[in-house]
Design brief:
five-stranded mixed β-sheet, single chain, 7 strands, mainly beta, two-stranded antiparallel ribbon
Amino acid sequence: MSCARKTNPRFQRVELGMEQRFKVDLRMVEGDGEFPCPACNQIISPEDESGVTYGVLEVETGRDGTLQDATIQCRKCGSLIRLEGFDLLNEIVYSDRLIAPEDRPDLGVNIEG
């Protein structure tokens, strides 16, 4: 499957001596999508758009424009966190009818570039 990959130029990766990388499967996150950073327990919430607790580094979309994966960076400890499991969100949002990518609602991910 061919995917588009966009990198957010507003955020830079922090180079650490021992860069910590984690994967979070959003299908396993309960509630409103909030979860603690696996390294430092900083709460990361999709509702937080301030850029203070985390930054979006990279977003991958499928050919149809659906969100596939995203990589974020915790602002407290610098850990890189790959978010997976958007397929369930895409199914919930678009299951009622087929919606063209340009007509789909904003899922809270800003990928300016």
